[in-house]
Amino acid sequence: MRISDKKKEKISEQIILLLFQESPKPFFTSHIAMEIARDEEFTKAILIALKKKGLVMEIKKNKEGVEYKKRSRWILSNEAYNLYKSKQAKV
User: Fold this and answer.
1) What's the gap between Cα 72 and its chain centre?
2) What pLDDT sits at residue 44?
3) Mean pLDDT, contiguous 10-residue spans, the chain (91 residues)
């Protein structure tokens, strides 16, 4: 089954909203997938696309600086956060 670009964009918006609401707390891919009720692999593909656009940042180390082998945490980039916050203030 193929998902249209329009639906992918809506899902991307859901992810950005989740990260904005909980900012600056980073989330694992699995938690984001659970929150938006999507498959983890699909969610990771969307997150990677958002990373390429500069909207999210991938964190590959834990708080002690040890690199994760298979996991990633995600956070909204500073630019995206500031832009989203300015749009929220105007509403």
Assistant:
1) 11
2) 93
3) 87 91 90 92 94 93 86 89 76 55
**6 CB-near residues (< 8 Å, 6+ apart):** none
Q: Tell me the C-alpha to C-alpha distance, in Å, between residue 35 and each of 6, 13, 72.
A: 20, 13, 16
pTM, two decimals, is 0.84
Domain ranges, ordered by start, for the chain: 5-90
DSSP 15-58: HHHHHHHTTT--EEHHHHHHHHT--HHHHHHHHHHHHHTTSEEE
Q: Is 65 left (phi over 0), alpha (psi -120 to 50) or beta?
A: left
Query: Under CATH, which architecture does the 5-90 domain have?
Result: Orthogonal Bundle (1.10)
Which residues, other chains included, contact 27 with Cβ-Cβ below 8 Å and sequence gap of 6+?
18, 19, 35, 73, 74, 75
The pLDDT of residue 91 is 55
